[in-house]
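EI: anyone free to look at a 292-residue chain?
SC: sure, send it
EI:
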Amino acid sequence: MHLTDSQVSFFHHNGYLVLENVLNTDDLGPVIDEYSAIIATRAEKLHTEGKVTSTHAGKPFTERLLHLATEAPEVTANLDIMQARGEATFNFLKNPKILDIAESFVGSEVVCNPIQHIRAVMPRRESQRAPTPWHQDAGVCWPDTDAHFMLTVWIPIVDATLENGCLQVMPRTHQLGLFQHDWTASGLAVLPEHQPTAMQPKPLPIRAGGVILFHNYTLHSAKPNESKSIRWSFDLRYHDVYQPTGRPFYPAFLMRSRMRPHALQTDYETWCQRWEFALEHAKGAQAYRWPR
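SC: here you go
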C-alpha cells in the first residue's frame, strides 16, 4: 500500500495519519496464533505446577491471559517481541504492506528499528497500572537521533476503542521540538507543566487491521483500558538505513533495499541469534537520555 500525496501531506502537517483496512486476517492471524500458542504453553505449565486452577482454554485471545494473570501474574513476563522471538512475529516486521507504507516516508532503504514492542494492555481494574503516559518517541532514544526522522507504525491486532485504551495524539506537536521528559510511576512522561497548553488530545479509535502512523516528535499517549478484555497492539519503528537507531546496543535490520538487495537482513535464525546476543551483552546499558 503506497500512500497518496495527500496522505503524506496530512502526515507531515499533523504529525500522524490513520489508515483503515491495511491488514487482514492473513496478516494478523499468524501473530495471534503464535501468541495464543505461547500463552497456552504457559497455561499448561502453570496448571501442572499448581499455580492456576484452570488453563482457561475456552477463553478468547483477548481474555485468556487476563484470567491466568489473576492467579499467576508471572504469566505476562517476557512476552515482548525480542523476548518471545516468534517466527510469525518476525515475518510481521517485514510484512510488505507495512514496508510499503514505511517506504513512502523513509525511502527505499528501510530499517526496522530495535525499539519495537507488542503490548498486551490489561484492564485497569485488574492491573492497577496507569495507561501509557504522554511522551514522544524521540524522548526514548539517545540524542544522536534528534536530527533524524523515525516513523512509528502503531498496529492494533484487536479493535482499539475508546473503552479499551486506544491511542491518542496531540496534533502538530511534532513541529515543537523535544519536550522535557520525567520518570513517573507509569513510565517516561511529559508532565502537564511541560505540555503545550493550546492543543487538545485527539483520540484515535481504530479497528484491527488499521494502522496509525506518527512522527517521532508527536506527543501521544494511550487512554486507560476500562474494558474487561486485553488490548493487544504493536508499535514498530522504521527509518532510513543511514541514520542511528537510538539504541546502538540492540540489533537493527535492513528489511527492504532497492539499492542493495543482497544486504537484506531478513533471516529468522540470524534475527533470533542477534537478539539473544544483544540481550545478554547489553545488560546495564543506558537506554534513555533522561536519568531515573
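EI: The chain has eight helices and twelve strands.
SC: 👍
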